[in-house]
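Students often ask why we bother encoding 3D structure as a string. The short answer is that it lets us treat folding as translation between two languages. Here is a chain of 160 residues written in the first language.
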Amino acid sequence: MSGNADPKRNRIISLALLAVLLMSVSLFLASPKESDTIVVTFPNGTTLETEVADTPEKLLFGLAFREGLPADVGMLYIFETTGPHRVNTRQYRAPVDMIWLDESRHVVELMQDVPPCVGDPCPLYGPVGEPVRYVIQTAAGFVLREGVSSGAELKFALRM
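And here it is in the second language, the structure alphabet:
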């Protein structure tokens, strides 16, 4: 019996190691690069470099614990599906403007000068009853300064 167990055991160990190796490689290839930036272009020609929030961790924490944003930088939340997505500003250090977009990248709702939340419970922000796919957060004052309006179509381009 022991003669049959060793080859069988070695085969099981080899298959398990192969499975672990394949999963590691697929996770490495599938994970987003930290340096990916999406450049958002507004109808007036203004561009905004956005950090992509497309992982559960980035979607949960967003701009928390950051001191603020430069005028031409933002965060782009990309949700897996279109729906009634809402976010909060828990542990943000500065107010933000929020631009909510539908799947075709048209502005659905704008929120200006949304304050940081430092206590519980934190309010959730987002359009009620409007399905959205993306949210852009910028430094407060961006929406007013750039004249962003509801219905405007934004363009996205990946910068690598």
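Translate back mentally: The two ends are 58 Å apart (CA to CA). Keep this in mind for the problem set.
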